[in-house]
Amino acid sequence: MIDVSLCRKVLLSAVLISAWQCLSSQAFALDAAAGKPHISIEKQYVAISVTVDPALQPFAALFADCLAEGKAWANKMNSDSAAEWRDNRQSFRGMQWSYDRDYTLRSVAGRYVSVVRSDAWFDGGAHPNQHIDTILWDDAAHTSGSAFARFSPKRPTMVQP
User: Fold this and answer.
1) What's the mean pLDDT in 79-96?
2) Considering the domain boundaries, does residue 142 fall inside one?
3) What is the per-residue pLDDT across 136-161, written as a single tens digit (0 to 9) for each?
4) Contacts of 48 (CB under 8 A, 6+ apart)
5) What is the pLDDT of residue 27?
6) What share of the chain is helix, strand, coil (3-state, %, to 5)?
7) Cβ neighbours of residue 53 under 8 Å, at least 6 residues apart?
8) What is the rounded distance in angstroms from the CA atom of residue 153 to the CA atom of residue 161?
9) Which residue(s) pair with 46 in the sheet?
10) Structural domain boundaries, residue 61
11) What phi and psi, each to the nearest 5 degrees, are found at residue 14?
12) Model confidence over 95-131: pLDDT tens digits?
């Protein structure tokens, strides 16, 4: 026998979780919309945007580095999609491809600034894709590197006898 009250609780939980996810995704979209893209390319076959968090402006060299890297990335995605459009229009299946890159300030600790680089793209596959990376910026030396590489211990190498 099916417990009706349990089914109602499960259904109510699913509805509440769905509503929370919808509201939180709308809030995220509003936050993203507040920071207009610094680079935006819109063509019939592709839409590309690069956004750098305004909170990174006090770190002028980091802001410029993110913007330059984003511009190079946007130009590469644009040329790759233009070549695909020219050579194989069927791969677009009547849809526009999209590429988005966002740089967001995560934290500041002394001279180190942590930035989250988030890439989201749709290039005709079954679903959109996403990649998130953390950039660790040394504000004194004006260099960046992977947070993993900087703080992980060196792994021993195997020596063959």
Assistant:
1) 90
2) yes
3) 998 888 787 655 554 545 444 444 44
4) 39, 40, 41, 42, 74, 77, 78, 98, 99, 100
5) 40
6) 45, 30, 25
7) 35, 102, 103, 104, 105, 115
8) 24
9) 97
10) 35-151
11) -65, -40
12) 899 999 999 999 999 999 999 999 999 988 888 899 9
d(CA 61, CA 97): 31
| CATH number of the domain within which 76 lies | 3.30.565.40
Residue 142 CB neighbour total at 10 angstroms: 13
Tokens, residue 149: 């590489």
DSSP 37-73: -SEEEE-SSEEEEEEE-GGGTTSHHHHHHHHHHHHHH
pTM for the predicted model, two decimal places: 0.68
What's the CA gap between 49 and 62, in Å, rounded?
19
101 within domain boundaries: yes
9 occurs within a structural domain: no
Query: How many domains is the chain built from?
Result: 1
